[in-house]
Specification:
five-stranded antiparallel sheet; 4 helices; 224 residues
């Protein structure tokens, strides 16, 4: 599957918004940083007295508060902060930001890349939600989009399961299973194909069922 034009730039722009605007706004109000997948992108859960949400949907920044909605094109972090009413900046006391907080640097958003990212997150999110029902005995955490890594994941027992839009280690979007407490270099199990565990890129995953099957395999290999 060919990456859309300006995919990496769009991913970086969205990651910066997640860290320095969406996560920042939620953290300053609630002390929490987690985001969630929504139709067309990702968003904060409702927070504050007005139950506001801040979202990146279909390549636009959206603020909903007090029954009102405001939308704007994504241009810079400064403009995004003005729309939602905050000074951009990730909560560095909680995590070290991965993206720079350059207020006036242009944020590049390609429409095709934005849609493909949204579709990938939605596919992975649904597969993870189905997985949590199947492995309830492992006491899985809630499905969360973590702004610092920009991945959507859960932790169940001693295993992390998630969906990533790609990073320095695996450039293309991928699913992963990452067990802790397992000596991966010492195992001859071919399923573990990454230093952190196992990954499969979106070229091999075309459906929620396919993603869920990968997570099931990971669960079987990790916990037996």
């Amino acid at each position: 599957m060919t990456l859309p034009q300006q995919f990496a730039e769009t991913r970086e722009s969205f990651h910066a918004l997640a860290e320095h605007v969406l996560c920042a706004a939620r953290h300053r109000s609630t002390g929490r940083i987690g985001l969630e997948v929504v139709d067309g992108g990702f968003a904060t859960p409702p927070f504050g007295d007005d139950r506001r949400t801040i979202a990146v949907e279909h390549g636009q920044l959206v603020l909903r508060a007090g029954g009102q909605e405001r939308r704007a094109p994504i241009t810079t972090l400064r403009a995004a902060g003005e729309l939602v009413g905050i000074e951009p900046g990730a909560p560095s006391s909680v995590f070290k930001p991965t993206t720079p907080c350059d207020l006036d640097a242009p944020l590049i958003v390609d429409a095709d890349a934005a849609q493909r990212l949204a579709d990938w997150y939605a596919l992975g999110d649904e597969a993870l939600r189905r997985l949590t029902l199947e492995i309830a005995d492992d006491q899985p955490s809630g499905v969360t989009l973590w702004p610092e890594h920009f991945d959507v994941g859960i932790r169940a027992g001693e295993v992390n399961y998630g969906v990533s839009p790609g990073d320095g280690q695996v450039p293309e979007p991928y699913l992963y299973v990452g067990p802790t407490g397992l000596d991966l270099p010492a195992t001859d199990n071919a399923f573990w194909n990454q230093p952190f565990g196992a990954a499969v890129t979106w070229e091999s995953i075309s459906s929620v069922a396919g993603a869920l099957d990968f997570f099931r395999q990971g669960h079987q290999h990790a916990v037996g």
